[in-house]
Design goal:
single chain; 284 residues; mainly alpha; 19 helices; 77% helix; 0% strand; elongated
Length: 284
Amino acid sequence: PLLARLRATLRLVANALHASPAVRSVALRNGLVRVLEPLWGVCVLTDDTLQMLVELLCNFVANTPAVARSLATPLGNKRSLAVAVARFGCKLLRTGGRGRVRVATFDLLTTLVATAECRNVLWREGFVEECITRLTLTKRSQTPLLKFLAMASHYKEVQHALLRTTAPLRVLVAEVTGNTDVTRTTHALTTVRNLCFARAAYARVTRDHPPGLALLLRLCADATATSAHRTLAQEAVGALLDKCNKAERKMLAPRVTPLLDNVHATRPDFRPSVEPVTRTALQT
């Protein structure tokens, strides 16, 4: 009965927080974070209660960076809520399972990684590295993990970690080429696209894992791909070319020019989106 009443209260607060940014601001000013922090140890006892708390936190931090920053701030000598969530995320990665709790937790972590203070917590607690490890060890990565990496890979420190070896890139390319799930493909391709904005990506994609470049070039003008996937591939190729030096561009030109010729010949409707991102970048 006590946990049932707690879940009902959490649901009521979660709905209020979801309804309005003004409610989130008032809740932050009135110390809701201090109230929620000690509840974590109670809610973690049952999946239903924990899911309700995590969903409340998702609503609380939505489009409200100040709330995310407050979750990363320790309360006195106690750990912050962001630490508790990061450690629980690591546990989920190692043990698997937990269904809806897993999905909700990764949704929260995906939101938190966009705030620098929370991102620092996720690094310190080893959550980002654990994600990369699980990505390379698991034959078929779970959608929440791919979604997290699609957001996290916007940031340089995560890009560098993903590009330390070719293994993450190989897994991501395999996810794109061997997947019929549009959502999973989008997450994996978004991560590849984000990685292409890192300087180290040129060597990884063009030299260490040529299938990655071949995939991007093919997707740029693939009539069977979604427009979103073509755009991601075009942005990735453009980013790679933009990071090249003059000599590297000359080496890459023979791979890109046939793509342009093919687009001009077969799909003039793609030409406006493909040409600027490649032709301009190839000018030396």
